[in-house]
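Class, discuss our next protein.
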Amino acid sequence: MTGWILLALVLLFLAVVLLRAALFRPRQEDPPAPQETGVDYKRAAEHLAQMVRVRTVSSRDAACMEEEEFERFRTLLTELYPLVTKTCPRERIGPSGLLYRWKGREPGSPTILMAHYDVVPPGDPSGWKKDPFCGETDENGVLWGRGTLDTKGTLCGILEAAETLISRGFTPAHDVYFSFSGDEEIMGDSAPAIVAELERRGVKPALVLDEGGAIVEGAFPGVTRKTAVIGVCEKGQMDVEISMKSKGGHASSPPPKTPVAALCRAVAALDARPFPASLTPAAAEMFDTLGRYSSFGLRVVFANLWCFLPLLKLICTKAGGELNALMRTTCCFTMMEGSKAPNAIPTEARMTANLRLSPKDTMDTAVAYLRSVIGDEDIAVRCIQGTNPSPISPTGTEEWERVRAALRETWPEALAAPYMMVACSDSRHFCKICGNVLRFSAMELSKEERGCIHGLNERIPVEKIGRAAEFFTRVLLKS
């Protein structure tokens, strides 16, 4: 009798799981009806090429900054966008912040579109196929240069959209601000200064839209269609140093415990016991949205996370990369320092890790976890710098739908879904004054192109520049 009951329970379980998977289908939506934008693709590409040729490389070392290049860029914007310059008064706020205000027809909560115009160093120029600041378009219609993707391309798209709409006599219903910083790559003070000024003026935006997600392919298991991921939050980040001191001495007669060996054991322990995986709200909604388009086998998993969540956590852990980063706080050791001589035991050895914090963690809980796993009182754990994870912006709001509608009109073939941004942006500061902070870079990027961000041979097909401008035009038309 007991065997029959167990069999019945198993069959019932299978029936429930398979039925839920069968019903886990895409939600029906009407096809988008794109608005004409009038964006001039050729002009947008020419303008971005000019921006790329200005070497706005930021650095925490002021002596390495070419301030004249930053000023040249700010002047260039007034030349490239005369109608924006005339219609939208611009202020300089903080070390390098630019804040434009496009006055709306009536009172109401404004929209803020963001980008940054500083770039990271190009690295070894010999590794580039073209000069990192050439701003040259090759025979395949690809524009080369640092900043084409991160994020002069976004800044160009925003201002191209505004210039086009102003030329057509358009005025937004409510105020629109353009917030651009020149020190985002070094986590500078410009964006916080802009937020402080807006807060002082009592400005409470309805929507803030910054860099972040993109249109990608093959990034989600079992989904063959292009996916447009919109960041609704971003992970926190922190740099942590683990260190150990010793009396030093000659390497020919080492003591039982040396700093380098102890730190290596600590790193190995942390590698073997990563931060626990958890299903954050942003990841859960992304799985619920995109999982409906995956293969039936995967739909069985995504439709039944109530029982298959441990399996999903295992899959993400084994896969590594972006899927793993969506499920947990990550810890990656990047720097080491020991003795200056090969035959001398260091009096102090250090290793530095970069952590990206899940919304389930804070800087304090992350440090506590590191100490518990290391379990060695001789090893000091110190937070060098960091920020906690950002709040999570809701989906389903009017502001979310504005961005999603503009996205669907520009890339009708793409599936829109929320996600947790694993990198950091200036937008995290704006969570202080706005509950709808979204992150989408308005570009369709291949895996290779995404790998060029902060890497060698950064470049963008010129067609994608015009498409970005079309997207921002549609966002503004709905403002």
Q: What stands out?
A: The chain has a mean pLDDT of 93. The CA atoms of residues 48 and 453 lie 16 Å apart. The first strand starts at residue 90 and ends at 93. DSSP finds 15 helices and 16 strands in the chain.
